[in-house]
Amino acid sequence: MKRIVYGRTTASAFVLLLAGWLVWAAWGGLAPGEAQARLAYLHGGIEDCETCHVNAHTWWTPTNEHCYDCHPGFQVRDPEVYCWTCHAPGEDMSAARSDVACTQSCHLFGRETSKHVVHAGGTAACTSCHAVSDSPANAAGSVHHTVPEPSLVGVAPIHGLPGTQVVLSGSAFTGSTLVSFGGAAAVFSVDDDGLITAVVPAAAVTGPVVVVTRGGRTTMAKPFVVTAVSSLTLRVARSVVPRGRAVQLTGVLRPTRLTSAGVVVTVQRRVAGIWKSVRTVTRGVTSLGTYAWSFRTSRRGSYRTSASLVASPEATAATTSWAVFRVR
Length: 328
Prior knowledge:
The chain has 328 residues and is mainly beta. The protein has helices spanning 8-26, 32-42, 64-70, 100-105; strands spanning 75-76, 107-108, 151-156, 159-160, 165-171, 178-181, 184-185, 187-192, 195-199, 209-213, 216-219, 225-226, 231-236, 240-241, 246-254, 262-271, 274-284, 290-296, 301-309, 318-319, 323-327.
C-alpha cells in the first residue's frame, strides 16, 4: 500500500478552512459584510480592535487603562471591575448611568483627593444632589464628575465699611450661589472662574468671608473687618473752675465695641488772641465706651478742649467740637 503524505500547503489550507468555518459559525452564517456591520453595531461603531484592546491576549479581558484613553479623569476602586461590567463597548460614557452602583463600585472623582460617598438615606442618583460639569474643559473632568470644590485664597481689601467693593480671588467660582460677610449675604458678580466682586452688605459684622458654589463651600481664614462709623462726644463738668482745681473732662465713643481704641484729648489756652496747645493725652476706652481725664492748671485764662479718634480698620475717624471753660 502506498502511503499518502500531506504537504504543508494541504495542511495550511485545512487550517484556513477550519478557521473560516468557525468564523461563519460564530457569526451565525453571516456574509463578510454583514459580519462587519454586526461587529460595528456591537462595539458602538468602533471597528478597530486595537482601539480597546492592547493585543490578542487581552481581547477577552478588556483593560480599564484603555477605557481611560477615551474617557479621562476616572480611577477605579476595584481593579478587578472592568469598564464593560457597566458600560457596553464603544458606549458614550457621557450618557451612562450615575446611580449608587456606579459610584460605590467603580469610579472615584478628583483623582487622589476625594471619593464619591453615597449618603445614607439619600437618593440613588448622584445628579440629584450634585450638578455635573458641562464641558470636558471643566476642571471637574468628564461629565460624570461633580463640580469642583471652590477655593478662596484672597480678599482685598480685608476691611471696609458697608458698601465697600471687595475683590475675592481663588478658583472654581463659576456658578457661585452665595457670598457672605460675617453671615450677611452680599450682592456679588462672578467676573471669571477665579474672581468675584462683592459689596459688603449693610448687615455685615466682622467675621469670615464665605463663598458657596454648586461644588461646595470655602471660607477665608482671616476674618473681614467691618469698619464701624464712629461717633465721639466730650463735655467739661464745669465751665468755670478756680485756679489749681482739676477740670473733669468726660466723653463717650460709639460703637462701644471699640475698647481697643485710644481717644486723643487736647487742651489749648488762649494767649494774645492765639490758641496754643497746653497738653495732649491719649485716654483708653471702657467696655461702656466711656473715657475721662482730670486736667489741672495753675494759670488763669480761657481754655478749650476737644477729642479725636484716628481712623483704623475697626472704625472711621471722629472729632468733637471744642468745649470752652475758664480758669479764674
